[in-house]
Amino acid sequence: MPTSELLSPLRTEIAGASVADLAGRFGTPVYVYDAEKILARVRDLARFDVIRYAQKACSNIAILDLVRRAGVLVDAVSAGEVHRALAAGFQPGTGKHAPIVYTADIFDRDALDLVIKLGLPVNCGSPDMIDQLGERAPGSNITLRINPGFGHGHSQKTNTGGEQSKHGIWHEQLDGCLQRADRHGLAVTGLHMHIGSGTDLEHLSQVCGALEKAALVVGRSITTISAGGGLPIPYREGQSFVDVDQYFGLWDATRRRLAESFGHAVTLEIEPGRYLVAESGYLVSEIRAIKQMGGNTFYLLDAGFNNLARPILYGAYHPMSVCRTGSASGAEPTFADVVVGGPLCESGDIFTQEEGGFVCKRSLPTAAVGDLLVIERAGAYGFAMASNYNSKPLPPEVLIRDGKPYLIRARQTPEDLMRGEVIPA
Question: Which of the residues are catalytic?
Answer without folding.
Answer: 345
